[in-house]
Amino acid sequence: MSAAGTVTPTPVEAVRLADPYPFYARLVAERPFAFDEALGAWVAADAAAVRAVLGAGALRVRPVAEPVPAGIAGTPAGEVFGELVRMTDGAAAARLKGVVAQALARADLGRAGALAARYTREALARGGDVPCEELMFGIPARVVATLSGLTEGADREAAAAIGDFVRCIPATATSADHRAAARAAVRLRELLGPPLTSAPAASAQDTACGPGPAGAAPDASPASGPTVPPGPTGGREAGACGPADGSAPAPLRDSRPGTGGGTPGSGASASDAAPAARPAAGRQGAAGTAAGLRAATGGGAPGVCPGVHRGSVAGAPYAAGRANGLLRELVGAAERAGCTDPGPLLSNAIGFLSQTYDATAGLIGNTLVALARGADAPDTGALVREVVRYDAPVQNTRRFAAEPFTHAGSTVEPGQQVLVVLAAANRDPAVNPDPHALSPGRVNPAVFTFGAGAHRCPGGELATALATAVVGELRRAGWSTTTTPAYRPLANARIPLL
Ligand code: HEM
């Protein structure tokens, strides 16, 4: 309770306030790095604390004892979750992060923007109420699905499935959410597996893959869940990526005519994974083989998944030769890095969609709200980039101490949690002059919305291109929204209900 008698929110509750920024400003000024009794966690709010926390190897993205949320452990959703670079630390995860980042760095942003603009025009041309859900969530996800090689119909199905998949991520997820996420994970593997196995090699002049932009954090790579029931899932090792001993990497793709992809040889090295992270006995050693990926996707013949051509999708969801773009780059980068296990590649291809989903919806929504509140910005791209800082769609993230971590004289003990308030650091006057002004075209802003350090987001440019295209089309159509929307009751994503 404040002196004025108003109830002080927790930094998690602040995410959905109409204006959380006065509260964040107080945190930055008065409690830049402090333990919050109500949350039971440390809160890092100013730029210095946020940088220090995100750069600390002692702090991990998941609790050491729970690498996969209990509600989805042992399900297909848990297996995907446990292989996401976003959700894992350790040397293998760092190398896989390099692969993921290389693929995203080569995403065709022009095509992404053109597709997002086209889908937006098509949605508006249908008439009736403006379909905000579709514009904010569906279109960015569809574009990423299309960039991943899915064709009309399959792209929509993937966009719908990823909405179900992300439901498992909040701590508040129900058992119905977990079941929906598990079904979605199965379907997403079916949809994305064949384009991944049939991705042609990236160009030969591509640069060699080093350890990647993510510095290798210390050991303890968390696990995927146990074997996926029911049916064959392939014998993948969580996060296995390239020989840790520096031996020559095995190629990822199978060069046999007709297979179109996959990986010969066993290849996968899990020598840097924690022993507890090893897959349960019974998972077979098919890692690094075309069969491994086909099994992981539930498929049979190369490039063909049972059930994929049935249901709502008319015709082939991905035509031969369409395997290109993001997944082609992913496969090429994996080959160069010696990431011989296709399973984690498939999980991180699904991760492209899940990482896009809520965050890009928030960026589109928050930009529309900024316009409704009178933002003066003829250049939509410049406005979107400033909204990234000014009204961050991802307001906070978390870290979990595996070892003691000390900042500014305070020590986080192993087992404790840190809430990292990215949106507060964005408005720290120590790093951004006049931080509460919305100034499109701001020169060299310090922006924490995409994280920092080993887990920094590699999708920022893509997200900005998508949001710019969708908002640009809405502006051209003369559409505007309310200045005072309610916000979705989420713990870290700030997404207006439009
Ligand atoms: C406005 C949109 C987006 C925002 C605000 C955002 C924000 C973030 C943040 C804060 C992190 C780091 C989390 C942490 O360190 O705890 C992250 C990680 C990540 N993001 Fe994004 N993201 C966005 C869009 C995207 C898109 C479109 C993609 C790819 C298609 C993407 C891919 C990733 C990946 C792969 C990671 C994991 C990186 C790692 O853990 O090493 N993001 N994102």
Automatic annotation (TrEMBL):
PROSITE patterns xrefs: CYTOCHROME_P450
Membrane-crossing segments per the record: none
Domain of life of the source: Bacteria
Biased composition (Low complexity): 210-226, 266-285
Keywords from the UniProt entry: Heme, Iron, Metal-binding, Monooxygenase, Oxidoreductase
Positions of the UniProt region annotated as Disordered: 197-285
Family: Belongs to the cytochrome P450 family.
Protein name, UniProt field: Cytochrome P450
